[in-house]
């Protein structure tokens, strides 16, 4: 499988602060509901370099090298920081869309969102130039959105949301100019009214956190794991497979052969990925839904009087930062090794 890099950034309560895959030493942490910090990791300790103010309407990301972008979704305005040059640039999105995700990669800023007139645009930082990206007719129907953005060495990948059928759009990143649409592929689903919230990528696996709703079983969270860019072999972990084991997935990361899960009710979960789980999908190849794996295989550690609000993978390590919130709303960070 090709080496992959992923970035997904959503509202602060769902912001993907870790595992964006971009090479670099800097990472973001949620300090509290109004502040994020830019950090590095040295001598087994987190070093905070700079803090930034956010609101509940903010989405944000870093390129892990020199830039942080914070987008105010209420105003469709962006503050772009180059923290090594102590430079701040203020931008206003010149297109009609409702932003849901923002991505910094090299000298380009990508924004995906809900259909206004556009759902995917880019800003070229060096040229100070905005451009809208081509979107297939199949993804231009009402209700469509881009909630996930992924890049690898040569591709920008946008994941369509909510309205079935869902699609994955592939764009050529090699050009210094506007990226061009290469092809698109239909994505398997987990149920009715599915909404994708978070994405995680390693060199081996792709993972998506989503939720569905039906009148029979109610709301269900799903973590779907794929083992290649074709998105053909997959399995899903679904939160409410039975009433006695009902719980929510609030965040997750992928590391080596494990899915690390934050659950509001159960704490920190570890699920070991086996290749046989993907092999089982071969006989389901004509199905348009993902096969479910048994969630009793998830091993949980309970955190009393605290809720894990975020999981952040520290770059270049196998360590994860747990962002914990107590009953008084006070945040703290704990480093664990997986």
Give a structural overview.
The chain has 338 residues and is mostly beta strands. Helices cover 1% and strands 54% of the residues. The protein contains one helix and 28 strands. The strands form seven sheets. The chain has a five-stranded antiparallel sheet with strand order 1-13-14-15-16, with no helix packed on it. β19 and β20 form a beta hairpin.
Query: Shape, please?
Result: globular
Beta-strand content estimate: over 45%
Q: List low-confidence stretches.
A: 1-16
Query: Helicity range of the residues?
Result: under 10%
* Global structural class: mainly beta
Q: Could you give the count of β-strands?
A: 28
Strand order within the widest beta sheet = 1-13-14-15-16
Rg over alpha carbons:
19 Å
Tell me the major beta sheet: 5 strands, antiparallel
The CA-CA distance between the termini, in Å, is 23 Å
Averaging pLDDT over every residue, what do you get? 84
Task: Give the H and E element order.
Answer: EEEEEEEEEEEEEEEEEEEEEEEHEEEEE
